[in-house]
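INTERNAL AUDIT FORM
Audit reference: QA-55
Scope: verify that the stored structure record matches its stored sequence.
Auditor: D.O.
Record contents follow.
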Amino acid sequence: MNETLDVIERRRSTRAYTETPLTREEKDLILHAAMRAPTAGNMMLYSIIEVEDQAVKDRLAVSCDNQPFIATAPYVLLFAADYQRWMDYFDLCGVKECSQRLGRTLREPQAGDLLLACCDAVIAAQTAVLAAESLGIGSCYIGDVLENYEFHRELFDLPRYAAPVCLLCFGRPQKEHTLENRSSRFPREYIVSQNKYHRLSADEFHQMYRPIEERVAAGKGYASGVDNFGQATYLRKFIAEFSFEMSRSVAEMLKNWG
């Protein structure tokens, strides 16, 4: 296994950090790696905000589903899907007059543009994660920044066509990463298919989730009224309060993007 694959293999979400701050050089290396990530049409449809203000981190620890470790992270980055920069540049370059002169369409960013910019932002974020891991710096994604859109938009002074996609916490892990404490992943045969989508059968689902069901059975089991892992996940995640808030929040984002 080469060094890059080893970095990917040992990466895990880190939520407990030492108090040792990241150096400016380490931060710059992480940012440089993020900006080397693949990007649609070389447009870099994202912006990165370094969250250095402790008061802002404290507020994020509450607004992002009450996760106190966000406030203790030595380094926090917000990745925003960003078409505002291009729209401002288009205005500066007189694209309205050019389009009218050539009889071409004028339009504002729409849902497809937002999705493309989200892809750019997340690809950059994951590249930052791997760069940090290679430096011995752990990280954790905070998807809850998709919630409370109005609050986060005001907190970061985001313009109309910039939307918060993911928050990343970085820091030196308190515990060394080992294969034993990494989260499990589903076997490849249930995730990877050839040439077309493979919809799993009932038998395949039972095989896929059997190790999880066995671990639960060996532990505390499920709450009263819950029979299996699917029911537990549905109740704990899919219809949890944060899921409804996330959908509401994203709907507000989409309103801004046409």
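Auditor finding: record pair retrieved intact. The beta strands are 46-50, 75-82, 138-142, 162-171.
Action required: none
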